[in-house]
Amino acid sequence: MILLTAPETWPFGSALALMVGVSIVEGAGLMLSASPSQWIDAMIPDLPHALEGPLGWLHLGKLPFLVLLILFLTGFSLCGYAVQTIAHTITGSLLPAWLASIPAIFSGVSTVGGLGALIARVVPGDETSAVSEESLIGRAAIVIRGTARRGYAAEAKVRDAHGRVHYVMVEPDLEDQTFADGDDVLLVRKVGARFHCIRNPHPELL
Fold first, then answer.
1. Residues with Cβ < 8 Å from 50, sequence gap 6 or more?
2. What is the tens place of the pLDDT at every residue in 82-101?
3. Which of 181, 113, 115 is nearest to 148 (CA)?
């Protein structure tokens, strides 16, 4: 009980309380068919293309922001309390809040990267809107990872009619075309799990 109320643990108690609050608000929103995650994600601008590769392991844009926030707060809070418990057991006193927060921050980020990857495999965050993949045909996309050539797909992102971002695998529809990171393409048809694309004749569509 002393650990929970000590001033040296206030960042972790605050993080825990915020995590519970966000979870309650999100749960209530889902029951009312008005998820706060969707509103927040719609207001957050896309990650700059130059940062999508280096920060891709944080799943920014691939999972709802509130899910990422809950994962971070969970890792931060649990690690912070664990650090202070160990410190109190060994020395009989608690570490300053700022010092205990350093490993807790790393733990929070690691939790986002690790558990976020597992969640992203089951629930792709930006593909939750009720649209079919076929509805993406005819929409402009941008290649964000890899080089697409006939028979070899690259990852691209495309917005649906509701403005939501989808991550799809694309390959050129024409034999002699290749597309690299940053290239603008137009989705023309779907073959299996991949979209075939051509060079976007109107880049302003993005």
1. none
2. 999 999 899 988 999 999 99
3. 181
At residue 76, does pLDDT exceed 60? yes
Domains and CATH numbers, the chain: 2-127 (no CATH), 133-205 (2.40.50.140)
Q: Which amino acid is at 143?
A: V
Query: With b meaning 16 or more CB within 10 Å and e meaning fewer, what string describes 47-74?
Result: beeeebeeebebbbbbbbbbbbbbbbbb
Amino acid at 152: Y
Question: Measured between alpha carbons, how far is 15 from 108 in angstroms, rounded to an integer?
Answer: 11
Strand stretches in the chain, DSSP E: 140-145, 148-149, 154-159, 165-172, 178-179, 184-191, 194-199
List Cβ neighbours of 68 (8 Å cut-off, separation of 6 or more).
58, 59, 60, 112, 116
pTM above 0.85, yes or no: no
